[in-house]
Design brief:
heterodimer; A: alpha/beta; Rossmann fold; four-stranded parallel β-sheet; 4 strands; 48% helix; B: alpha/beta; Fructose Permease; seven-stranded mixed β-sheet; two-stranded antiparallel ribbon; 7 helices; 9 strands; 27% strand
C-alpha cells in the first residue's frame, strides 16, 4: 500500500533543491521531497505554503528536513510542527540523511524510519 | 553600561546570532526582547530551545529589558536582540537606548524596499531609523562577524541617490 507521507526540505540559500538533486542521483526515490529556499521565499510564506499543503493533502505523516538546528529554517519548521505529533523535524541535513529516507521510505514504519534516517545521517560524518 | 552586542534582527535568535556572533564574541548570555514573543509561551520556549546549553538565555518585554539595563547589570558578555527600530525607539523613550547598535538583518516582506542584501525597510522603519540617527545613536549594518561594516546613515543616503 502506498504510504501517505509528505516530505519537505527547507534550507538556507539554494541548498534544499541541490542536496535533493544529489541524493536523487544516488538513489531513485520512491517519494517526492518538496524543496524550499529562504533566499527565494520569505520564511513566513514558506510556513504558510507548507501548512496549506498539509491541510489540503491530509498526510498520515510529515517529515521536514532542515539544514541547521537552531537556524531560522529550524524555527520555521518547528512552527509548522507545533504540537502535531505526526510531523517530524529533522535537523542537520546531509546527503546520507536524504539517501536513507529514500532508501527506507517504503520498507520501514514511521518511527523506525525516523530513527534509521537520523542514525545514517550521523554515520555519514567521519573524520580521519 | 557595557553591552557586548545590541542587534536588530527580525529573525531574532537564529544561526547568525548563535553560531556567528555568540561564538565569535564568546558570549555568555542572549536576551531576546520582544513583547509579542514574551507573551506567547510556545514561541518563547522555541527561541530559548535553540540557544546552546552552555549559554544563558531569556526572553524579556521592553519594560523588563529597560529595568534590567537601568539597574546597571553586567551585560559585557550579553547579546541583546530586538526585531525592529521601533522597539529601539521605545527603549529610547524609556531612557535606556544603547550607544551603538548592530543592524544585522531585516528581511524582505511586502512593503519593504531593499537597502542591502540583508536589509529591507518599510517607509515607517526608515523614518524610525532616521530619528534614531538624529538622536545620536550609532547604527552600523553588519550581518555576520567579519563582514564589512556599513554605517546605516550612508546606506540610507546612497539609496536616496
Amino acid at each position: 500500500m502506498t504510504k501517505n507521507y509528505l516530505g519537505f526540505v527547507i534550507t538556507h540559500g539554494s541548498l534544499a533543491c541541490s542536496i535533493k538533486e544529489v541524493a536523487e542521483k544516488l538513489i531513485k526515490p520512491k517519494t517526492e521531497l518538496r524543496c524550499y529556499s529562504n533566499s527565494v521565499q520569505v520564511l513566513e510564506e514558506i510556513e504558510e505554503e507548507i501548512q496549506k499543503q498539509i491541510a489540503a493533502e491530509n498526510p498520515d505523516k510529515v517529515a521536514i528536513f532542515v539544514d541547521l538546528v537552531g537556524g531560522s529554517c529550524w524555527i520555521s519548521a518547528n512552527r509548522i510542527k507545533r504540537d502535531n505529533e505526526h510531523i517530524a523535524v529533522l535537523g542537520g541535513l546531509n546527503v546520507p540523511m536524504l539517501v536513507s529516507y529514500f532508501m527506507n521510505y517504503e520498507r520501514l514504519e514511521w518511527q523506525a524510519l525516523l530513527e534509521k534516517v537520523t542514525a545514517d545521517a550521523q554515520k555519514g560524518i567521519v573524520c580521519r | 553600561m557595557t553591552l557586548q552586542l545590541f542587534r536588530i534582527d527580525d529573525r531574532l535568535i537564529h544561526g547568525q546570532v548563535v553560531i556567528g556572533w555568540a561564538n565569535y564574541l564568546n558570549s555568555q548570555q542572549i536576551i531576546l526582547c520582544d513583547d509579542s514573543v514574551c507573551s506567547n509561551e510556545w514561541e518563547r520556549e522555541l527561541y530559548l530551545s535553540v540557544v546552546p546549553k552552555q549559554m544563558d538565555a531569556q526572553v524579556l518585554t521592553i519594560n523588563q529589558l529597560s529595568e534590567l539595563m537601568r539597574t546597571g547589570s553586567d551585560l559585557s558578555r550579553t547579546i541583546i536582540v530586538i526585531n525592529s527600530p521601533l522597539v529601539l525607539e521605545k527603549l529610547e523613550t524609556l531612557g535606556v537606548a544603547p550607544v551603538e547598535v548592530n543592524v544585522g538583518g531585516i528581511h524582505y516582506k511586502e512593503g519593504r524596499e531593499q537597502y542591502l542584501s540583508y536589509l529591507y525597510l518599510s517607509p515607517e522603519e526608515v523614518e524610525s531609523f532616521k530619528r534614531l540617527i538624529e538622536h545620536g545613536l550609532i547604527l552600523n549594518c553588519q550581518d555576520v562577524p567579519g563582514a564589512k561594516v556599513r554605517p546605516l546613515k550612508s546606506v540610507l543616503l546612497e539609496k536616496k541617490h
